[in-house]
Amino acid sequence: MDHSIKTALGIKDVHLELDTNTKEDPITDHGDYIVVHLIQSYPMHCPHCGHLMYKNGFRIVNYHGADLHYKPTIWSIKKQKYLYPATPQCPQTVTKLAPVKDVQYRHHIATSIKQRIMMQLAKNESQTDIADDFSVSDWTVRRVINHLDHVFKPNSHWFPRHIAFDDFRSGRFAPSGMSMILVNIENHRTPWHHSFTPE
């Protein structure tokens, strides 16, 4: 694949190439979105015995990729399937599917989009607006925010000298429909947010 095309699409996986054997052009504009036909095939070794696996056809998987010409893209990837039959060295039949470096396992949105959503969260924009900007659902934006919990985990082994607190209706985000927010009065930060059941 041409390096400039990979750069424009945000593809870093060296094994992804444009699929030129499709009936239509490898990059097709469908009006509201663009479909990029890709193929991924390379030698893979059995994770148990290390022998070279047999290529066992292809499986087409669609991923949501970065925008191209201000339109969302769908990466239609023809992924190589692999098979290694049971042998004395490897008593269990092994099947694998070529992984894509640019997409997390069992996810269907490119990592580059999630990274851009994280950067956009620093701005004063609603989740719905951010979702519209990247052609994803607002639940995807919320999952990205929830994933950041381990990065910005508060230190729960100390308390500030002065605490303000208030309860508010949080709807379906809490089992009881109510939540409580605690604020450090000195720096106006909100490191705590808890759900509670009102009496």
UniProtKB/TrEMBL annotation:
A Pfam family reported for this protein in Swiss-Prot or TrEMBL: Zn_ribbon_ISL3
Domain Transposase IS204/IS1001/IS1096/IS1165 zinc-finger: 43-83
Top-rank taxon: Bacteria
The Transposase IS204/IS1001/IS1096/IS1165 helix-turn-helix domain, residue ranges: 100-148
Protein name: Helix-turn-helix domain-containing protein
Source lineage: Bacteria, Bacillati, Bacillota, Bacilli, Lactobacillales
